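User: I'm putting together a teaching handout on how multi-component assemblies are represented. Below are the sequence lines for each component of a complex, exactly as they appear in our records. Could you produce the 3D structure of the whole assembly as structure tokens, so the students can see both representations side by side? Please keep the chain order the same as the input.
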Amino acid sequence: MMRCRSYGSYALAVILAARAAAVAAPPPPGMVLIPAGEYVPLLREPSDPARIPVAAFWLDERPVTNGEFLAFVRANPRWRRSLIAPLFADGQYLARWAGDLEPGPRAPADAPVVEVSWFAARAYARWAGKRLPTIAEWEWAAAAGLRRADGRREPGFTAAVLAWYATPEPAVYPAAGSGRANLYGARDLLDLVWEWVDDFNTVLISGDSRGAGGTGMFCGGAAANNRDPSDYAAFMRAGYRSSLSASYTVASLGFRCARDAEAAAGMLTKADSPAPRPPEGDQTRSPFARLP
Amino acid sequence: MKNRKKSRYSFLAANSLLALGAAVLGYAPLRALLTGAGTVGAMVSAASAAPAAEAPAPPPAAAPAAAEANAEAPSADLGTARGVAPTPTLPVEQAVLTAPPHVPPPITRRYAAKVIVHLEVREVVKRLADGVEYLFWTFGGTVPGSFIRVREGDVIEFHLENSPGDKMPHNIDLHAVTGPGGGAASSFTAPGHSSQFTFQALNPGLFVYHCATAPVGMHIANGMYGLILVEPAGGLPKVDREYYVMQGEVYTAGAYGEEGLQSFDMAKAIDERPPYVVFNGAVGSLTGDNALTAKVGDTVRLFVGNGGPNLVSSFHVIGEIFDTVYQEGGLAVAQHNVQTTLIPAGGSTVVEFKVEVPGTYVLVDHSIFRAFNQGALGMLKVSGPENRLIYSGKEIDAVYLGSAADAGTAAGKREAELQAQIAEEIKTNPKIASLTKEAQMERGKRVFMQTCFACHQPDGKGLPGIFPPLAGSDFLVADHDRPIRIVTKGLTGPVTVKGQTFNNIMPPQVLTDQQIADVLTYVTNSWGNSAAPYTVDDVRRVKAAEVSQ
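Assistant: Of course. Below is the structure of the complete assembly, with chains in the same order as your input.
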């Protein structure tokens, strides 16, 4: 308990320090600084660490939009809907778009892009000079409420998160970034779309959540490995991730990008240049690669 | 350094997924064939609409090889062939799935078959009660989910499909499956995807199926449960009607009846305090026009499940005695002449009874507040000729006042004292004391419409010669205290109201002092009446005077 209580002030100190630094070095456009912290995994084997340290990192303020993804597929034809290799995305890839280069009425330019595979999200991130956040990073950023690093201690936080699961999916998503900013300035983490993370499939949860495979989430001894059996939202995120494969696309699944804080500091010297890092790897190699 | 480690994990992950992706690709044509063979929720497929007892149903085109081998299949009864691996020679048929309260037709074939089940998970906003909606997670678009009927020994090829518009991954644990997780791990499916697994129905019985994705309780509470019947090899005794009823609780954030789209309330679920306990997914799903029906002389069989997630059901049909109960859904042992049978959460029962007398029979959870305050109510309407020997109907209707007529007893005094205390509390509570007359009128109207209107009529005009009018009543407003005495002590004998004589009995009313003040304020200020409002003090004073006499 003591440790938890001091946690918030620790985080606050980090933020203040980071903000002070940010005065000298402005953040990358559209990104917010998530201070260093710790992710407490929902489930773990006794041999796993109870806490996973998270270094400070930059995180996109909001999910990637259809407009931004359009720029990516313009620059990288192989990631267009009609050209993508079937290994890298299932049949519903960008299904709501009107065409290869026309998002159309069901995918407004400022709405989060959905129906993208992990491969595609990862390729976008590389093209943008970023990467996908890890589970630990994403969960640490999303654990924050409006005023505290541990949002669950804010009244209404848990209920608001759960309410999202009780809301039907809209046919057309609202603009990304229209939600309230959390403690670190990140928006829409918990109430717009699901988001890919880099290591989504490292959660070794069996499909049967009650522990038939010994790494389950409910019942019997499995409950002992469980950080907080009442954290339903965390259960659902863990369960959701474990239902995915990297080629899957889902109507409510998008992503946002992250960047190492040190790398970002390096980038700042090049802040005058809007061009991203040259693409790496054959997934993203394109003579047209540049930011819009 | 940490990051390098992470990206290596990711790289490994990607590699294994590539392999998986290739496997999926190689398997895709087969899947296309299978999904093309039938659609989810098809009420009656061509193959099984008229299941022939002697000849197997023609298999779908997907399995031409099986067609030739069918000739021998009927003689091979796998119903008792425990441990025998399913052979490819089984005839293939599509399962008939039905939405509640309907049940697929009995299985008449005498041999095992390969039965293909397509069940689609859909997250849909549905009516929970009038004006109340809830985002249900469903198997087949209904709560409970589609009824599945197979035969002992059948090999079931199960396809679970998760609708592309869904938010959550889901799976299915069928209690009819022998194997770890009941199929749950093999059927874990992301939105917009499908899974397939196969099992042999070894044990006959009526089994619950449900979603087992974390958090399990929430998935069940949101409607993810249903029934699968594994008929014994010899079938069930023939009956005239079969219906599908399943109980479940709904943990809404709002109280019972609170309108709008309600969300799931985790705290109430953990505390097991459901605002709703319902049959077939909604208040009123089996009442009025939705009632089950039968004719006099029919034998009715109810397949009853309890999805829970928490509560145990005391299942009872008011006015009927179950001739036969297959307790807990096991079909081997039958109990007879049962009034109320217990259905565990995640369990079932089969009840049979012959309906002898026409009328409406009410299905309840006899943990009875659930029936009257939380929605656990259904109806079976039986039509046909009366049978006065079995049930006479009402023969005598007389007034009986009993001890309630005597307000001078010790109990009465004690009650008056307590009422006085209540009145004092009410008087000193500033919240109530500051109520305006308008608010009092509104509350009084509510009391009137619950307690008084049946005799005095909603318009206060009463019934000529029987119940005196309150509208424009000289008798009512002549004496301010008299209405208090009438309400608290009742009134017997002749009175003259608006020039007309009435000679009847009004029993004392069991109301709080506040309710009496409210309702009298309402009736003396409605329908053209006008009088000073009644206060709790007035009521207390008159009551005290009565007791001291």
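A couple of points students might notice: Chain A touches chain B through 55 residues (CB under 8 Å). The two ends of chain A are 48 Å apart (CA to CA).
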